Amino acid sequence: MAVSHAAAQDDWPVLFALADPATAEGVTWDDDALSHVVDRSGRYPYFIQQFGQEAWNAASGTRIDARAAELGVVAFTVPGMAEFISRQHGE
Questions:
Q1: pLDDT: is 52 or 4 the higher one?
Q2: How many Å apart are CA 89 and CA 71, to the nearest integer?
Q3: How far apart are CA 6 and CA 11, in angstroms?
Q4: Rounded distance between C-alpha atoms, residue 28 and residue 88, angstroms
Q5: What pLDDT was estimated at residue 80?
Q6: pTM of this prediction?
Q7: Which residue, of 29, 33, 39, 91, has the greatest Cβ tally within 10 A?
Q8: How far lies 14's CA from each of 32, 60, 91, in Å?
Q9: Which of 60, 82, 47, 55 is nearest to 71 (CA)?
Q10: Secondary structure of 23-88 in the HEC alphabet?
């Protein structure tokens, strides 16, 4: 179960931003999907949330698997990173 994996790793951002909201909606995250999102985010909360949202959008049904996580990261990375960097530098 993804929540137990996150708790074992002391990944409170994962529990707060990804696992708990999903569970509340009847959606589950596979452990490897959670790990992929967290690894690619650099544990930066904004990216955890954005990658997670895109993974949710890419998932089919009530399970977010590794493929959905991969698609979610890619879907956000190009347009989202450009916007994020622009905002950080006041452009």
A1: 52
A2: 27
A3: 5
A4: 33
A5: 53
A6: 0.72
A7: 29
A8: 13, 21, 30
A9: 55
A10: HHCCCEECHHHHHHHHHHHCCCHHHHHHHHHHHHHHCCCCEECHHHHHHHHHHHHHHHHHHHHHHH
Question: Model confidence over 17-33: pLDDT tens digits?
Answer: 788 889 999 999 999 99
CA distances from 12 to 37, 41, 86 (A): 14, 14, 28
For residues 2 and 33, the answer to whether their CB atoms sit within 8 Å is yes
Span 31-73, pLDDT tens digits? 999 999 988 988 888 888 889 999 999 999 999 999 999 999 9
Residue listed under structure tokens 């994020």? 84
**Number of domains observed in the structure of the chain:** 1
State which residues form the domain around 33.
Answer: 2-88
